[in-house]
Specification:
about 30% strand, elongated, alpha+beta, single chain, 1 helix, about 50 residues
Length: about 50
């Protein structure tokens, strides 16, 4: 069993192809002593967000 802390980051998104990559990189650049889970909820974007 893994006893490490888990930080969940939820990103709601709609037509954010221009910024979603930068957002993910920013989250992953954080220095934390924990596992990070990123959940992106895309609301049927019409651009390349997916």
């Amino acid at each position: 069993m893994n006893n490490r802390t888990l930080i969940s980051v939820i990103i709601p998104s709609y037509n954010r192809a221009d910024t979603v990559g930068e957002t993910i990189e920013s989250i992953l650049a954080q220095k934390v002593d924990a596992d990070i889970e990123i959940v992106i909820g895309d609301d049927c974007s019409t651009d390349n967000t997916r």
